[in-house]
Amino acid sequence: MRRNTLMEWNSKDSWKVFLLLSIIFVVFSGLFNHTVWTPDEPRVVAIIKDMYLSGNLIIPHFAGIPFVEKPPLFFIYCVSLMHLTGLDALLAARLGLGVLCLASLAITFRLAWLLKGKEYAWLTLGVLASSEGFLLNFHWLRVDAMMMFTSIAAIWAFAEAYLRFQLRYVLLAGALTGLAFLSKGPIAIILCIGPAWLVLFIRYVYLRQRGAHQNVTWGRVLFFHMMGFIIMCLVIAAWVYPFYKQASPALWHAWFWDNQIGRLTGSSTKTLGHNHEGKPFYYVSSIIEYTLPWSIFFIIGLASSMKRAVTRHQVNWLDGFFLFWFCFAVFILSYSATKRPMYLAPLMPLFALMIASALMTLKGRWFDWYRRAFLVMMIVIIAVFAMTPLWAKYLPSDNVPQALMLWLSSWQVTALWVLFAIILMIKVEVTQWPAWIKLSLISSLFFIAIFHHVFIAVDIAKDMRHDLNTFVKQIPQDKRGRTAGIGFSETMSSIFYLYDDWSVPMVDKARAQRILEGKDRQYDYLILDRTGSIQGPIRYMGLPSSTPYRLLLIGHPRSDKKRSAILWLTGDENKTLPMVEVSEKAVKQPAKAN
Prior knowledge:
Layout: H1 15-28, H2 41-54, E1 61-62, E2 65-66, H3 73-85, H4 89-116, H5 118-128, H6 132-137, H7 144-163, H8 169-184, H9 187-209, H10 218-246, H11 249-265, H12 269-272, H13 283-290, H14 295-310, H15 317-335, H16 348-359, H17 366-386, H18 402-408, H19 415-429, H20 435-462, H21 465-473, H22 477-480, E3 483-486, H23 490-500, H24 509-516, E4 525-530, H25 537-541, E5 550-555, E6 565-570
Parallel strand pairs: 3-4
Antiparallel strand pairs: 1-2, 4-6, 5-6
């Protein structure tokens, strides 16, 4: 008989073993085969390296620059892994991502089991482990990985306390909530833990009114919650108090007001970036992307829940839980002036729970056609990437870095991963496993192929080590102490520190002019980070056109950004320094050209 639902369970089904194996492979695929990538990764690894060397766990720094946008829990976690494993900052951090990813999956599995049982838990696990947004954010070095884990872990602990009537878990929930705060600030509590806790607590009160857990007095319930709150405050204070004592008023203002309040209201976005104020539907496309390949089920489930709520049809408490949490979180994210797709990362477990809930109610053969369409699309995509030598010659070579073009034009051994993945994807499709597990495994194989093969091409485009080392080696050691930087992005400061152990000191525009005019006592040279421009250095810095300068060296560590460059300058009056050979014709312009 033809199956007419997406769910068919058998405790002896072998798909569970293959699902767990696919999870392990997809989590660790592509984690260790590339260098740091922009954005964010250079700064994150530089902070971890600095924290490891300095032992300063309170105020994170990169290249001598304090970084207080976020509390340091993720950095401390990675430094601990460095001490435990002996790995360097980059490898320890990537290992930390994998551990946090597996822990988040395990916690979400347990939470789903508490909410709706074993079948629902397996379904949620399969959805989450094959969702694009979940895998992307656990393959990119950012503190959001720690925020995702601590947030869902705190919600799980509250679920244990309220649904299984184990109030001691409130104490654990308090500690995890404090850790969530230390991962990215109060946004973790506002976005995830707060709304989830409210609904779970209301459910607990309802169950008590129905006669459950009557042997425990409200006084004892209050005691556990007070203790949980105290534990949360102590965990938060373990960092906030020493930071308050050590930080200058400017640093405290930057952390609390600029990054916690200013990002929400828009008052600090001019300096911190990512300003998308007045775009209430900014996250619509990102939600669809992050929930791929399950987006259609997310939309169906969300629309069905909203329809039942609006028409006042019976909505079970679980649908209400998901709907309230989703609407509240998306409202906060959309209201905030600062918006980035990655801010959806801590909501990925919620999205998986909603998708799994929708899948359990759907029937019909249409899902087979949907899955097969995705199968064909995925095979075509990875096959196209595996056969780059056949079409790379048609790319505009002027816009593609030379090293990347060489890679694209050559047959790569890693393309065998693509071939192997395609064979397994077809094999999975013809099995007699449940329809949803087929889509989960096919998607995992697709991502494994991407991570093993395509990530190498991305790394070639984003790798900054070789060109930066070439640039720095041409600057004499005795001149580096007399060199300052201007206009450095966080990425540029980080890679100088990561790859050459050089914390280039920054100066403002006024001092840069004094340096070029030979009037500064400390510095004779400047390194300018010229981003996205081909303007002359004087015009780019906004200095008077009469400012003298000599362009001594030019480099392009950001090979994927043709218009960007780093320039080593000195004043025109410095006649004793020999000109360093450089590769751009632009250096032959007159000294005062703009």
